[in-house]
Amino acid sequence: MGRKMTVSAVVLTLNEQKHLADCLASLRWADEIVVFDSFSTDATADIARQFGARLIQRRFENYAAQRNAALDAVQADWIFFVDADERATPALANEILGLTGLDRPVRSEAGWWVPRHNYIFGKLTLRAGWYPDYQLRLLRRGLARFDPDRHVHELALLDGGEGRLQNPLIHLNYETVPEFIAKQYKYTQYDAGMLHAQGIRAKPQNFVLQPLRQFHWRFVTHQGWRDGWHGLRLSLLMAYFQLVLYKDLAKHLRNLR
What we know:
With 257 residues, the chain is α/β, with parallel strands linked by helices. The chain is 39% helix and 23% strand.
C-alpha cells in the first residue's frame, strides 16, 4: 500500500478580510492551510490566525514570484492554490483527496486543472466563455514552478503529466460593473506589453476585426445570447476591451518613436 500523501491549501492575500474567513472554512479538509500574505493592513492576518492557518508574510513582487515563494515554503506532497474569493466545495475536496490520498506510482500527473463556476455581478455565468475556465491549481511539490516572466495570468510549468478535475471551484468574481471595468483596463495594459515584447504589432484591421471576433466568440459560439442581457453585456464589454488592448499595443509603438 502506498504512503498517504499530504495536501497544503495555499491562499495568497492582500487585504482580504471580506472573503478570507469563508475561503478558509471551505479548506478545512486540507492537511495544512497556509495564508501567504503581502503584509495586509486590514484584519486578514488576524483571521488567518483565528482559523489556525500558518501565516507567512512576504513583500509582493508579482504573482508568479509570490506563488513560487509559496511552493518553496511548504513541505506537503501537493499544493492546492486557492484565491481568497474562491471556495472549495465538499465534492471538489473529496475529488482532490481521492486523487492525492495515496502515493500511487501509476499516476504521473504533476498538476491538475480545476474548472471554476464564476459568479459575475452576482450571477452564475456558465456561458459567454466563462466556463469551464480551467485553472492549473493543484501541483505536485518539486514538479512545478511558475514562469517568472509571466507576472500576471501566471503560467505553471510542469515536469510531468497533467489532468483535469471534474468538480469546480466557486469563484466570486466581479461584483460590480465598475470593478469589472477597472480590472480589465489593468489586464489590457499588461497583455499589450506582453504582445509587444513578442514582436506583435497592431494592424489597422485589428481595431475592427478583433472586437467583432471577440463578440461573436462569446455571444454566438459560447451562447452568451442564452443569458439575455447578462450575456449581451459581458460579450459587449469583452469586445470593447479587445479594442482597448490594441489601442494599448499601438501606444507601445508610438512611445518608441
